[in-house]
């Protein structure tokens, strides 16, 4: 099961992230950037997507459709400039083919 992560604002206006439930049967992934400024969230349920949020405010800054099937994981590069997603696509013979995509959210 994947995760649903919710952002709520505390009394001082900062965004507090917490797990608020699950997405039954769907794969999901979460990653914080090395500097803690960005949170990448992904979900895969036939067509996966990845979104990048400002960790302090919860505002969405980047979004893309990712893998044609499931999403298994997300990670930032050490310098935080690239985001890596790992997923799969279902082939014509119903086998899963692993895929790795490097994203540059700044572009």
List the total number of helices. 0
Helix content: under 10%
Residue windows where pLDDT falls under 50 for at least 5 positions = 21-25
Shape: globular
Radius of gyration: 14 Å
In angstroms, what separates the terminal alpha carbons? 31 Å
Structural class label: mainly beta
Order of helices and strands: EEEEEEEEE
Largest sheet: 4 strands, antiparallel
Question: In what order do the strands lie side by side in the largest sheet?
Answer: 3-4-5-6
* Number of DSSP E strands: 9
**For the residues shown, what is the average pLDDT?**
74
Strand content: over 45%
Task: Provide structural commentary.
It contains no helices and nine strands. The chain has strands spanning 2-9, 15-23, 27-32, 38-44, 49-54, 60-65, 71-76, 83-90, 96-103. It has a four-stranded antiparallel beta sheet with strand order 3-4-5-6, with no helix packed on it. It has a three-stranded antiparallel beta sheet with strand order 7-8-9, with no helix packed on it. A two-stranded antiparallel sheet has the order 1-2. The radius of gyration is 14 Å and the shape is globular. The model is unreliable at 21-25 (pLDDT under 50).
